[in-house]
Every structure is written in structure tokens, then in C-alpha cells.
Amino acid sequence: MKTIEDINIQGKKVIIRCDFNVPIKNGVIADDNRIKESLKTIKYALEKNAKVILMSHLGRVESEEDKTKNTLLPVAKRLEELLGKKVNFIPKTRDVEKELEQINFGEIALLENTRHEDFPVKKESKNDEELAKHWASLANVFINDAFGTSHRAHASNVGIASNLPSAFGFLVKKELEMLDKLEESKKPLTVILGGAKVSDKITLIENLLKKADYILIGGGMANTFVKAMGHEVGKSLVDDESLEFCKRILSEKSNKLIIPIDFRVATEISENSTSEIYDRENLSENSICLDIGPKTEALFIEYLEKSNTVVWNGPVGMFELENFAKGTKNIAEFLSKSNIKTIIGGGDTAAAVIKMGFKDSFAHISTGGGASIEMLEGKMLPGIEIIKK
Ligand code: AMP
Q1: Which residues partner with 301 through β-bridges?
Q2: Which domains does the chain have, with CATH numbers?
Q3: Atom of ligand 1 nearest to the CA of 263
Q4: Chain centroid, CA 10 distance in Å
Q5: pLDDT averaged over the chain?
Q6: Which residues are catalytic?
Q7: 265: Cβ below 6 Å to ligand 1?
Q8: Which pTM value belongs to this model?
Q9: Which helix (H) or strand (E) covers residue 205, if one does?
Q10: Backbone torsions φ then ψ of 320, nearest 5 degrees
């Protein structure tokens, strides 16, 4: 693995592709975890007296309105606070040579959201060759530190890497070490899978069944398994197209798959919905299962206690509603207090555990939801492969 420490960046112009795709509401950054995680690489490049050119995408850009909305200006400000150093925000995505000339070595520039190059014509997301060459011409070295986008072949990762000497930043290195070597992690390995639909995670489940000792199923996807076992699940979210898949793997791998035995149930989905606890045999046609129940929590913890490594992908309940966040919170709390090596697979699970105050309790919280899933599925990530090659 070629990292920023294996490439000469001393006194060079260095593009660092970061993942600053953070949630921003009314100009305020709701979660700056990804910005914080990128500091190590940026600081290292500054120590080497590099001229640091930061690039990132932010949300999708499909209209002029999106361009105004999805600007990296708030990120520049937050980064400045975190680094205690000026971040020269350049509100453009190309033709920035003059602006960059004004910036000294040992200083930082941040270009505008790379996806501004997706409207009116998709160039960034289509890995447009001319755009990639233009960006590459701005620097001598390229560092990919955006793990969250490495499952996509875009101009600002694969494109630039095809045109410049490239290496990984510390964030990507850490992500790869955690996920790449999962097979070598101490067994038993238990995976907690939650989230909404089974169909999104079929390949993931099949691949994980080969590696993991146990898979604990929670969240909306548990409903589909419970229905596949022949139980009534009422008005719960069910992914009917995955019922046959669930039946098949339940019959083949029942010793590895742990399905909830009880649920926290609502009769409507709203902020004020109250929760009642039902065993899975007692659900009615009006039931909406929104969280695992206490017996299931105890069952899951029994398996977690036997484990040395845990990978967690997907909240086990609709954690956005307070009454249905208990399962996710109790499991997070148990893991945070244990000595089990726990890897949180990004996306909603990362958001949930950070919001619940468990950020520093885990071995690793991935910054890439989709990217970490694709890695666990055994897929090659183009943003990683291009540099490994
Ligand atoms: P995913 O993007 O597939 O990981 O799904 C995450 C979403 O699943 C979160 O927004 C949760 O609210 C939702 N979710 C978790 N449990 C349930 C449930 N029992 N019913 C419906 N949605 C759920």
C-alpha cells in the first residue's frame, strides 16, 4: 500500500482529495467527523512544506440552485477552526492557476465542490478525461484520502490518479487496514446488520456468511426475515422481493443467522408514536415493528459476548424516533463498554452512534457507508485499485 509517507511531497504542489461530504443545515455543519478525520493527512503535508490543494464533493449538483446550496465555504471555515490556520477558499472548480500562484508553499487552498462540474453536463461523476487532466495539471502529486467516494470512478479520484504520481492518505490507509484484514481479525467475528431493506444487502449477507461466525439481523430487514419464517408482521416495512432469499438462507445457515425474537412496535409512524413490546409470535395485522425488543437485545448481547471482533452496519431500529432508538443505543452502549474490537461501517450507523455520544468508544468508525459495504461485499473499489496498480 503506497501512502503519503512513501511519496516525495516535500515542497511540492499536492492535491489531497478529501471527503468533506458532511451534512450541512442552514450553513451549519451538523457532523464534522469527516473533516476531523482528514486533519492528519493535511497536517503531514503542511509539515512537508507542500502547497496543499484540497478537493472534495458535497452532495449532488443537478441544478444551478444545487450549486448555491452545495458550497464548501462552511467546510473551509470549520477546517480553519480545526487547524488554527488559514484555509484559502477558491469558489471555483477550474482555471484556478492564478489563485493558486498567490498561495505559498506550506499553505492551504480549498477548491469549490467538485460536483459543480456535474451541471449542466456531468463531468466529475463521469470521470471526464479533459477535466481530470486539467485538475492533474494543477499539482505534482495526488493523495487520495476520500475513502467515502473510493467506490466511485470520478474525475477527482480515479481521473487525477490516472494522470499523476499518487498515494493514499492516512484516513484511507486506516480504513483499508481495518476492513481489508477483517479475515485476519480475531475470531469469533460477529456482524450486526440493520437498516431498511434486505435487497440492498443480499450480496453483503452472502459474502459475510462466508467470513462471519454470526450475523445478527435487526432494523427493517429483520421484518422480512420474520415474515419469511411464517410470522405475521402486520404493517411493518417488508421487502417482499427478498422473501425467497431470506427463506433460502434461513434454511441453509440458520445456525449463523440470529433473528429478533421480540420487537418494539408502533401502530403509526410519528414523533409521538408510543412503543409496545411484542414477541414475534404475537404481532398483529396492525403492528409496525420499528425496533428490536429487550429479549432480542439480550440475545444479541449473548452472541456479542462470545465475539472478539464485531462489524456493525445499519441501525437496528428507526433510531431517528426517540422511542425506537433504544435497541441501537443499548447495543452501542454494550459494545462501547466491552473490550470487543468494534468496527462501525459508516453511513447511518456512524451517524447514530456519534449522535448518541459513543464516538470515541470504538476501534474504528468508517467514514464511508457505501464504500465500506462494497469492500465487505468483496468488491474492488476503483478509487483504491487505481493507486494500488
Ligand atoms: P439503510 O440506509 O438501509 O442502512 O437504512 C437505514 C434506515 O433504516 C434508517 O433511516 C432507519 O430509520 C431505518 N430503519 C431501521 N429500522 C427500521 C424499521 N424497523 N422499520 C423501518 N425502517 C427502519
Answers
A1: none
A2: 4-172 (3.40.50.1260), 185-376 (3.40.50.1260)
A3: 19
A4: 31
A5: 95
A6: 34, 197, 347, 370
A7: no
A8: 0.89
A9: helix 202-211
A10: -65, -25
